[in-house]
Amino acid sequence: MAASSLGIVRVPVLADNYAWLVHDPASGETVAIDPGEAQPLLDAAAERGWSIGQVWTTHWHPDHTGGNAAMKAAGARITGPAAEAAKIPTLDTMVGEGDTVRLGRHVASVLHVPGHTAGHVAFHFAEAGAIFTGDTLFAMGCGRLFEGDAAQMFANMRRYAALPDDTQVYCGHEYTQSNGRFARVAEPDNAAIAARMAEVDAMRARGEATIPTSIGLERATNPFLRADTADELARLRAEKDAFRG
Ligand code: ZN
Ligand code: FE
User: Fold this and answer.
1) What's the pLDDT tens digit per position in 167-179?
2) Which end of the chain has fewer CB atoms within 10 angstroms, the N or the C?
3) Angstrom distances, CA of residue 168 to CA of 86, 102, 127, 214
């Protein structure tokens, strides 16, 4: 099953979040991933004649769950991390590491990727070559460590780095340009980062989104994915938190 067998639509919500619609044409099923607000996703689905039967939630933060209640009221079943059930009152189905979720015949595996939040999960369609990483892996960056530590985020990055290079990465925010400014400073001799930033700056100047990215591109340009040790990731994360680029 190629990635083209899933219809994936990026829906900008709130200030800089991306929510996603994933549609399986064979079954007609559609899932909304991380709807920070409901209406833009309901509209995007309606425009295409799709109806949203499920919501998959990567973590409890309101910018990823704010639309859940309205989606549920509109008939969607809500799936998300069991470890964060107390903070996501809309959950119908609770999942964790090793579980699978389904959209028609497509199966996505659930990865527990803690650090940004304690129960954060990612959804990986291995056959289609697509992964939804929420606020863990970003283009040229990684999520802040609010409920975990650098060792956990480093382990997440190792897992992501082991995926095939052509895996498409769908993350939760348009942070690419600010991440890239830091990446350039973190790896001043990395020509791939410089080249990518020239492209990203041009895309942003045109008002274009820079997501999805790919594992291969991140392996070449993401200092956090490229870190060799948890200590190195910890140092990078601390420097990025203080970075005013
Ligand atoms: Zn978050
Ligand atoms: Fe977020």
Assistant:
1) 999 999 999 999 9
2) C
3) 31, 18, 12, 4
